[in-house]
Amino acid sequence: MKHPNKDFVAEAIADYEAMKAEEQGKLIVQVLEDQPVMMGYLTNLADDFTEEEHEALVDSAVILINAFIAAGIPVEMVSHQMADEVIREKVDNYEEMAQADQLNSEGIKEIADSPVVFEDLRNRALFKSQLSEEKITDRHNFSIVLDTIISMIERSAAASIEERKS
Question: How far is Cα 34 from Cα 28, in angstroms, rounded to an integer?
Fold first, then answer.
């Protein structure tokens, strides 16, 4: 699958940061409407994170979707089936790492579907939410959710590319 390269993600981050809060809010509402399953997943996790961390996760979803759109790749709606598959896969991967006592920042980055995109969005989130000051377990939980969101969006975009080919 062709992922948006670092330039599209970096550009989407810069564009999002340059927006007024009102414009960001409109984009978030649009993504809420376009991605009810994924955003429902995020909403259900709101109590597991600080307000800033949760906001950083929502922003990450919006930024990545905008990066795909900027690259000319539409992002289909994430289905319940796809969300369940990605969540199960990611939780299994992280549990395996934890059992092998290999759950660390580098290991998490390595098992991400898109390590560069993950790193860019995680770095932005660390800065925006003061997550780096949190306990290591909290950072890992945040990383699991961020990795899950990225995979949902990327697989949905891949599905739209496949649909266009047929």
Answer: 10
